[in-house]
Every structure is written in structure tokens, then in C-alpha cells.
């Protein structure tokens, strides 16, 4: 009877708590939905094709072969057909990749055919954005497989007076593939793509959890209530808590940065390290305010813990940390821009992998600052409402 009574009491407590019921019933649905869309489709690499001169005749059969690869998407480019200057074409191709229109661009110049007639291998050029190893590997693999078909379609010149004994003079050499990287190099590894976002995630993750639990403990002990009746404003209380947390969170961030940078086999400039430090500081104070808000909205420690998966899991799936957000439905793509970690990850990758300056990412910097002010405002409104009710 005792066991039955205890079990019934637990069931009744959970049913009465709407937040707990929502946690048990809705969170699994949300998480499984995110997992489904994350694994629904493989990432597709965007490839553009540029041809000049007589090489245009081989563009269609080459593109037809490449399109059979399910991992490749052929995209159009804003490069004038009349442009033939090699230096200008090189600049335009790089610009297209900087704009994100393509992860790679295949370029066949007008000299390819004349080189083949001269008995040379001839060369095609592959321009690679380089910051996403999976896209780079997919593009290079697809083009390499299509080269055999391209070589077979190339015309050959045979001297009419040549007999069967000189048939080996026919040019069947493999076409040379020349690679040009916008970012990175051939030594760039898959882990190098993921490591730059680890500091932002771990700083956000640990700061949010620690601030949520610690602030909830302050409420349970009654410390917060005593501070609220003291001659200090609510904003001063929150800023005081944030200032205290910043010391330990900063030390934690330095440990994470040092460890991650030791793993990345890429040299970084002082400016890049400074930019990463600013990004980590911004995501840290945002995580602090989110943790304090979650704890302030919770009625008990169990409800405070419930906020952890609700906040952390969407950040993992929708912040472009592991899975490319472009593969998700449009509604999830819009949600991703409402997540602080998305903007922090954008800055980290562009600064560490693409060597952009911190100020080139000013929209993301403003977004992180806006998140901090927004959560501060919400906390003030919640505190004001709670004080009126009391």
C-alpha cells in the first residue's frame, strides 16, 4: 500500500505541474523532429561551371555527368559570358564563392583543346571555397569521376600517313586538375571545420547550466528575496550576479580556447584570437542572462533543470554547428536566426577559417548585443510582475 500511495502521489504532482507535463510530452517530439530533419537529406555541394572558347562544346556533357551525383547541385553564376580575361575571371570566380553562391566552380578555358591537340595533358581549374571539407570532398570527387568521360569525348589528331605502329601517339593522357582554394588548403581537415565552434558552444553550455542552477539555489535560500527588498535596483542585482559569474566563466573560456587551439593545426593571428575572445565574451553574457531568466521563471529546481534541454538542444541542431541549416525546412531556418549560438558560430567560423575581421561580422555582433538587452528587459518585466503579485 505504501508503494502504491507514493507512486500515486508522484503521478498527481506531475499532472498538476503543467510545465513538467509539457517537458515529458513535448520535448521528445521537438527533439525527434530536429533529428529527423537533420538526417533527412544529405548535404549538397553547390557547383558552378564556367567555360570559354571551344571548351563550351563540352560543358553540357560534363554537367550532365556531374548532375547524376546526388551530392552535387549545379548552380548558375553571375559571370558575364563575354568576359575572357583570365585575371578578371579569376577575381569574379572568387567573388561568387565569397558571396556563398557556390562551394566550388569548375573552369575550362579556351586553351584546353589546343593543349590536347599539341599532345599535352591540358588542364581544367577547380576553384574551391574550402571552408567546408565535406562540400570540397564531394565536388572534387564528382569532377574527378567525370574526367574520364570528358577525356573520351575530346577529339584526337592522327596523321593520315601514320601507320598502326604509331597508334600509341594518340593523346589519351588524363586531363590535369588544378585546384585553387579561397580558404584553407589540401591539408584542411574535417575536424578543423568543427573545432572553431566548440569554444562558443562549450562556453554557452557551461555558463547557462551553472548560472541557472546557482541562481535557483539563491532563490531557494531566500537570498534573492532579501536583495529585492534591499535599497538596490533589480538591474543592479542582475549585473552584480553577472559580474561575479564573469570571472569564473572567463577562466573557463580561456581553458577551452587554449585546448581547442592546440588541436587545430592552423596558425592564427593575434587579431583572430582577439575576435574569438570578443565573441566568447558576448555569448557568455548572453548565456548568463538566459540562465538567470530561466531560473527566475522556474518555480523549483526541477523546473529550472527542464529549461536546460529546451535551450541547449535547439542550439545544437539549428545553430549550423554540426548540420547545415540550409537542409532544414524554411521555418527552422528562421528559428535558427533567433538563437544566439547561430550568430556566435557564424563569427567564429568566418574569423578563424576565412580570416575575416571582427567588424565585417557587425550584424552578428549587434544580434548578440541585442539578445543580451532583450533578456535583461524580459527579466525586469518578469520581476516587476512577480513583485506586484506578491
Percent range for helical residues? 55-70%
Query: Roughly what is the average pLDDT, rounded to an integer?
Result: 78
| Rg from alpha-carbon coordinates | 29 Å
| SSE class | alpha/beta
Major β-sheet profile: 5 strands, mixed
User: What is the element string, with H for helices and E for strands?
Assistant: HHEHEHEHEHEHHHHHHHHH
Major β-sheet strand ordering:
2-1-3-4-5
How many individual β-strands? 5
What is the overall silhouette? elongated
Number of helices: 15
What distance separates the N and C termini? 40 Å
Q: Uncertain regions: pLDDT < 50 for 5+ in a row?
A: 163-169
Strand content: 5-15%
Number of domains as seen in the coordinates:
2
Task: Give a summary of the structure in a few sentences.
This protein has helices at 2-16, 18-40, 59-67, 86-98, 111-117, 133-153, 190-194, 198-221, 223-228, 234-263, 270-297, 301-318, 330-336, 340-352, 362-389; strands at residues 45-51, 72-74, 104-108, 123-128, 176-181. With 390 residues, the chain is of the alpha/beta class. Helix 6 (133-153) links the parallel strand 4 and strand 5 (176-181).
Amino acid at each position: 500500500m505504501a508503494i502504491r500511495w507514493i507512486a500515486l502521489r508522484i503521478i498527481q504532482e506531475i499532472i498538476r505541474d503543467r510545465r513538467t507535463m509539457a517537458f515529458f510530452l513535448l520535448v521528445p517530439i521537438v527533439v525527434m523532429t530536429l533529428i529527423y530533419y537533420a538526417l533527412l537529406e544529405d548535404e549538397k555541394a553547390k557547383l558552378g561551371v564556367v567555360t570559354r572558347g571551344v571548351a563550351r562544346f563540352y560543358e553540357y556533357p560534363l554537367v550532365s555527368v556531374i548532375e547524376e551525383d546526388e551530392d552535387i547541385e549545379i548552380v548558375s553564376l553571375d559571370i558575364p559570358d563575354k568576359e575572357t580575361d583570365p585575371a578578371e575571371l579569376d577575381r569574379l570566380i572568387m567573388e561568387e564563392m565569397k558571396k556563398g553562391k557556390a562551394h566550388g566552380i569548375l573552369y575550362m578555358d579556351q586553351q584546353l583543346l589546343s593543349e590536347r591537340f599539341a599532345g599535352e595533358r591540358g588542364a581544367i581549374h577547380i576553384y574551391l571555397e574550402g571552408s567546408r571539407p565535406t562540400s570540397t570532398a564531394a565536388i572534387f570527387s564528382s569532377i574527378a569521376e567525370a574526367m574520364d568521360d570528358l577525356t573520351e569525348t575530346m577529339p584526337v589528331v592522327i596523321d593520315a600517313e601514320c601507320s598502326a605502329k604509331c597508334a600509341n601517339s594518340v593523346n589519351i593522357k588524363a586531363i590535369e586538375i588544378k585546384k585553387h582554394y579561397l580558404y584553407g588548403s589540401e591539408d584542411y581537415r574535417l575536424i578543423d571545420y568543427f573545432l572553431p565552434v566548440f569554444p562558443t558552444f562549450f562556453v554557452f553550455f557551461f555558463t547557462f547550466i551553472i548560472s541557472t542552477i546557482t541562481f535557483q539555489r539563491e532563490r531557494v535560500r531566500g537570498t534573492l528575496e532579501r536583495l529585492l527588498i534591499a535599497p538596490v535596483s533589480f538591474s543592479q542585482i542582475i549585473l552584480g550576479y553577472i559580474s561575479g559569474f564573469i570571472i569564473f566563466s572567463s577562466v573557463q573560456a580561456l581553458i577551452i580556447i587554449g585546448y581547442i587551439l592546440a588541436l587545430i593545426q592552423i596558425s592564427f593571428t593575434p587579431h583572430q584570437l582577439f575576435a574569438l575572445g570578443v565573441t566568447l565574451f558576448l555569448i557568455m553574457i548572453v548565456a548568463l542572462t538566459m540562465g538567470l531568466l530561466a531560473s527566475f521563471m522556474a518555480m523549483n529546481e526541477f523546473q529550472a533543470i527542464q529549461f536546460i534541454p529546451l535551450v541547449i538542444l535547439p542550439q545544437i541542431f539549428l545553430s549550423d554547428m554540426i548540420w547545415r541549416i540550409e537542409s532544414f525546412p524554411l521555418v527552422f531556418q528562421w528559428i535558427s536566426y533567433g538563437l544566439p549560438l547561430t550568430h556566435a558560430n557564424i563569427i567564429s567560423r568566418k574569423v578563424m577559417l576565412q580570416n575575416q575581421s571582427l567588424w565585417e561580422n557587425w550584424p552578428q555582433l549587434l544580434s548578440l548585443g541585442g539578445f543580451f538587452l532583450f533578456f535583461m528587459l524580459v527579466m525586469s518585466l518578469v520581476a516587476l510582475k512577480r513583485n506586484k503579485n506578491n
